Automatic annotation (TrEMBL):
Protein origin, superkingdom: Bacteria
Every Endonuclease NucS C-terminal domain range: 111-230
CDD domains reported for this sequence: NucS-like
Protein name according to UniProt: Endonuclease NucS
Coiled-coil regions listed in the entry: none
Amino acid sequence: MRVVIARCSVDYVGRLTAHLPLATRLLMVKADGSVLIHSDGGSYKPLNWMSPPCAMAEIEPTADEAEEGVAGVWSVQHAKSEDRLHVRIHEILHDSSHDLGVDPGLIKDGVEAQLQALLAENITTLGDGYSLIRREYMTAIGPVDIMCRDADGATVAVELKRRGDIDGVEQLTRYLELLNRDPHLAPVSGVFAAQQIKPQARVLAEDRGIRCVTLDYEALKGMDDADSRLF
């Protein structure tokens, strides 16, 4: 991961247009290619970002930009759309790179872990004919909560949350982009499952072809009949 603190302005052009005026910000370039711009307050979420797959180039400023005090420019282009992120850097206060290694993934809390176990045991909750491949399917960027097959035998990746928000959709999107590069798995579709799904997350998921499923935790617990178990 590359971490840069710089005085910069940022423009996003594509499906939407957004501008961040000149200010001191934290810039992050992750190993998966994503670029994120953070401020020192307001939220844990970035002010703006570009999700992978994308490519970043550091280019010289134009004559007009140089006159305005721009010392360098980051040009970030998304690989599958016309979306671009243009970061004009006036001054770099800090620039360092760090190898974080492979992340073991998020440790689920009790309810979320139980949701995963219950859904895996009752995978047909997602639809008739569904069958489980495995829980915690490991990838290079972390474990997919559940991998399964639909009634047609196609691979499905499931991301589970107690409360589904945009970050969860982004996480599943990254998994799907990676999994669909594997010819033994592709095509892989996605299911975003949660007890509650925020409207913005649902809109983003459906825009990306990801199916949303609202889970009833109590109903799933009812399917898990302890009296009928051998152990």
